[in-house]
Target: UV-damaged DNA-binding protein 2
Amino acid sequence: MAPQVRRTAFPKVLIERDTDSEQSSSDDDDEEEEQENENQEKTVEFNDTKKKGKSPITISLKKVCKFLKCGVFGSDKSLNVSLLSPVCKKTGHEAGFKGATYIDCPMKPCFLCKMPGHTTMTCPHRAATEHGVVPAPHVNTQNPVEFVFERQVKPRITPIKPAYVIPDQVDCAVIRYHSRRVTCLEFHPTNNHILLSGDKKGQLGVWDFAKVHEKTVYGNIHSCILNNMRFSPANDGMIYAASSDGTVSCTDLETGISSTLMNLNPDGWQGPGSWRMLYGMDINLERGVVLVADNFGFLYLVDSRSNSQIGKAIMIHKKGSKVVGLHCNPFQPDLLLSCGNDHFARLWDMRRLEAGSVLANLEHRRVVNSAYFSPFSGTKILTTSQDNRLRIWDSIFRDLDSPSREIVHSHDFNRHLTPFRAEWDPKDPSESLAVIGRYISENYNGTALHPIDFIDINTGQLVAEVMDPNITTITPVNKLHPRDDVLASGSSRSLFIWRPKDKFNVSEQSDTRKIIVFGGDEKKRGKRSKDDYDDDSDDDKFNVKGKNVKVKKPVKQMTHRKAKR
Model:
């Protein structure tokens, strides 16, 4: 859907709130946005007279400073308008997107860097991501522990920094592969062409992107959001998954048969105060333990050999806060990194894992979406926070009270999006390249696009911004292949595979790229739910060669030539 520009003269409108829809991790930090001013005038008038299936709509809107999501017309021609969040609630001005331009509230600081004195469009961090970043120095350590550790690790890291290889061209894609938005991605550990994906509905997709057209989606594993998944270290045909339905599953990818290893809600729904949801997940290879964490601040251990829970839950974050990320150190698996909605990333020793035994607290100003150790040495830490900051700690053996660097990047969002997470390039031996999607759109030849950014975390420089003129949706979920020069991205309900432009031979460059479009089953039932619009307001259309293509058949295969840049 093309960006909609609001008129300068605003009538009054009824903003239809979706109180049942899932909130992003940032919503727990800003719960005051739910307390709306009930005295504001809200009216809507719909003409019930339908002419040949079309019903005229009269809308009125009071001009109040609130961040609005564009209206979406459903199959029954009804208009759905969702309020994302209030800004300052004062009258006489507005805030939000107008096309590719973000309009700041005059009563608030810059939406990008959160600092006063300028707007988002004039923010110096928008012009140069390295603005204000102090590059990583080359210093000789005086810490004996770090010295010994580096002596063991340094031989694995090349002293010469290799050139970056950026997957910058869409090779193939499946549009509307999932029925709800994509929440996580994982590459197969041995088969280079298999990509696994989870969605908000709890479905697990297995896509062979070498064949493109084959669709395998298991919809009977979880009943709601599939938040995280990891392959079994003993069997690459089995996948562990953690879901917001409070269960940990182990699924056979060949048959789709799944078994539940742990269920935190055996009695079903007993109210929001007792319903437990699982978010963070990882596997300790040495101990053979699956680690999962919930929305109340607790960590659970599951034995991957006996597929049963070990011991009691351990509180590792503030009581009542989501623990959204877990990561075991690749070099020393007993080191565990966690992050959550209590504005902290925390470092733990699994040999003495108990409440209050934290090794280090990495404080942030807002919710921490992700925290990862570096892939080769495990000595660096990269975190993504909702305050539009990427934070880097160059060594876990130095002072962790403050990060080595902070990089301003646009990934603060409202709701109805999967949280943005910066991830390391697992193939980069210099441990300096990270990938993350961008929230604020940019104007590219008159089209508002949301690029995928590759950032040098040692200098803060933007190495590359990857985009395709046909992808106008936001791309918060991105995964780099551990062995090939491939990037997988999840944008709304669709999956995309990117490869480097120079890896295509001449015949492939002049040939076509496969784009497979799947039609959602929910459209056969006529009216779609409001939750569907919240997930993908503009994903029902995919722009091919400058034209909007709508799919009515369940499955349709199509190709398009490479777009001119």
